[in-house]
Amino acid sequence: MTVTIPVLDLSKFRPNDPEGAASTQEFLDELYTAMHEVGFFYVRNHGVKSELLQAGFEASKNFFNLPLEEKLKIEKVHSPHFRGYTQLYQEITDYKQDNREQVDIGREFPAEPINDGRPLYRSMRGPNLWPEDLPEFKKTILELMQAMTDVGITILRAMARSLKVVDEKEFMAMFNDDYSARMKLTRYPGMKNTADKPLDHGLGVGPHKDYGFLALLLQDPIGGLQVQTHDGQWIDATPIPDTFVVNIGETLERLTSKTFIATTHRVLNNPEDRDRFSIPVFLAPSFDTHVPVAFKPTAEETDSKKVVSDIQENQLLQDEVYGVNELNGFFRSHPRIRDRWYIYNEETKLWSRRETPLLSV
Ligand SMILES: O=C(O)CCC(=O)C(=O)O
Ligand SMILES: [Fe+2]
Predict the structure, then answer these.
(1) Nearest to 220 by CA among 58, 47, 66, 44
(2) What are the recorded GO MF terms, alphabetically (predicted)?
(3) 133-137 contacts: CB < 8 A, separation 24 or more?
(4) Ligand 1 atom closest to 276 (CA)
(5) Checking CA distances to 258, which of 63, 213, 274, 327 falls within 20 to 30 Å?
(6) Complex ipTM, two decimals?
(7) Of 9-13, 284-288, 320-324, where does the model show the most confidence?
(8) What are phi and psi of 138, to 5 degrees?
(9) Counting beta carbons within 10 angstroms of the beta carbon of residue 253, is it exposed (0 to 12), middle (13 to 18) or buried (19 or more)?
(10) Ligand 2 centroid vs 208 CA: distance in angstroms?
(11) What spacing in Å lies between the alpha carbon of 207 and ligand 2's midpoint?
(12) Ligand 2 centroid, distance to 324 Cα (angstroms)
């Protein structure tokens, strides 16, 4: 079966405008079909100014162009909150080292006290690490993260509405002040980049599903993102100017009993020497949220949702508490940061924060 990734027009979604009822309904129907059948779509007319998108890419390139020793000043290993810079090959996906470098940014919070009985996942909250020598970087990146978050929250509202059986107010209450947002700046070197020498497997990031509720991705024109259709084929998410690529994560898939699919995806490095840049934003409820399984699919929906994925079932994150999933996901992707800041107790089988970080990792 030939599957294409649909392009949805967000300006059709006018939830508070009685005159927009027909176009809103059309949008919701298209959204439902996209999420049920493909699990990915492009969104256009999202309202974020292209100057801001360009400024985001500029800021990202300025950072990646810094000498390695400058970038390492904000290396993620300095952050128990999994913020900061990750060198090429340091992140693990599907048991392989990724051919990409990246910066992780989250919402700014003060660090919380540790090991006082609160859940360990609250350690994910904390301050970001910012490069000192790029004065515009922080302002631009936080502005872009907020603008993309606003678009993502609008799409989440539309998803709740298109699912009908989900109570929109209850669903959106999970995104009150305390929602979780993460942004990543990525750079994928081309395979013939002789300075970086990407690993032969050619995977910028290996096959995976995202953890949370929604991912909204800004990609440059190079291409390389691929989506695994539900019969197991890999298709290109070819860049379309002025759009974001949207997909959902495992926790929202769980809430919908797989009516909406968290589709497997990966990124191939450019076969020549061209570097690719992308900026995804990941949205999820606050860490303490118990994500209900809210949806009882109809027989027809159950029938049509047999999905092939390259990901093994033991790689899936299915805890009911969102923070547990996010922490487990980061532990898996960043074992070096886990081992520096966290310790496993063989007797209790529980992780906790180290009182002082391990220096040797
Ligand atoms: O860079 C991309 O196109 C996708 C990145 C991605 O899937 C991720 O970081 O979860
Ligand atoms: Fe992803």
Answers:
(1) 58
(2) metal ion binding; oxidoreductase activity
(3) 133/66, 133/70, 134/59, 134/62, 134/63, 134/66, 136/59, 137/59, 137/62, 137/63
(4) 1
(5) 327
(6) 0.99
(7) 9-13
(8) -60, -45
(9) buried
(10) 6
(11) 8
(12) 18
Ligand nearest to C-alpha 98: 1
Beta bridge partners of 180: 284
What's the 139 CA to ligand 2 centre distance in angstroms?
A: 25
Quote the CA–CA distance of 215 and 279 in Å, as a whole number.
Answer: 10
Taking the CA of residue 282 as reference, the ligand 1 atom at the shortest distance is 10
- The set of protein residues with a Cβ atom below 6 angstroms from ligand 1 is 184, 186, 205, 210, 217, 219, 225, 265, 267, 278, 280
Q: Global pTM? A: 0.93
Other Cβ atoms closer than 10 A to 347: 5
109-143 pLDDT, tens digit each? 999 889 899 999 999 999 999 999 898 999 999 99
Q: Any residues with CB less than 8 A from the CB of 130 and at least 6 apart, and which?
A: 74, 137, 138
**210 CA distance to ligand 2 centroid (A)?**
5
Residue with tokens 């006290």: 113
Query: Mapping DSSP to helix (H, G, I), strand (E, B) and coil, where does residue 300 land?
Result: helix
Candidate from 40, 264, 267 with most ligand 1 atoms within 8 A of CB, to mutate: 267
